[in-house]
Amino acid sequence: MKYNLPELPYSLDALEPKMSRETLEFHYGKHLQTYIDNLNKLVAGTPYEEMSLEDIVLKADGAVFNNAAQTWNHTFFFETLAPAPVKMPEKLASRLADAFGSVEAFREEFAKAAVGLFGSGWAWLAEDRDGKLVIVQKQNAGNPMTDGMKPLFVTDVWEHAYYIDYRNRRAAFVDACLELADWEKVAARL
User: Any binding-site annotation on 156?
Assistant: First the structure.
């Protein structure tokens, strides 16, 4: 199976001004494409070649894992963004309130986790094995699926995700991602 750059559900300039066309040209068009190209080279002629991306993330390690997980994580990230504000469905708002006290408390805790992650990685909202909503920090290519959790929402906190638009203001980027979230898609993953 050859892995390909997924088509964005919006145009490259649709997320402006929160996320610029230039950022998407580099983050989506170059960084994600490089992970996909590397993955295709690494899995050629191996048992991974015919696996789904999710199966590779769950079974691989080393460079194969890193490139597969970065491909999966980035695809998930870009697919969860929306050009126009999407109201949070009551089902999701209720679950967040149950888990974190309120939607606003979730947003604050999520932002704190994303901003506070040392180095590069990902901040995730996930559903654990017991169905509880949790916020998970994962460094590098980490993904909560490897811990038996179901990813619901993610923010990429690698510098390449935000440095063009926000320079060193990771917190402002995280806030923008929360504003760009397609909460309908997040709720559908519950």
Answer: yes
Q: Comparing C-alpha atoms, which of 140, 148, 134 is closest to residue 100?
A: 134
Per-residue pLDDT tens over the stretch 58-80: 999 999 999 999 999 999 999 99
Q: Report yes or no: 28 and 8 within 8 Å, Cβ to Cβ.
A: yes
- 1: pLDDT confidence band, cut at 50, 70 and 90? confident
- Give the Cα separation of 92 and 125 in Å (integer): 12
In what helix (H) or strand (E) does residue 127 lie, and over which residues does it extend?
Answer: strand 121-127
Q: Say whether pTM exceeds 0.90.
A: yes
Q: Is 27 annotated as a binding residue?
A: yes
Q: Is 98 annotated as a binding residue?
A: no
Is the distance from CB of 81 to CB of 181 less than 8 angstroms?
Answer: yes
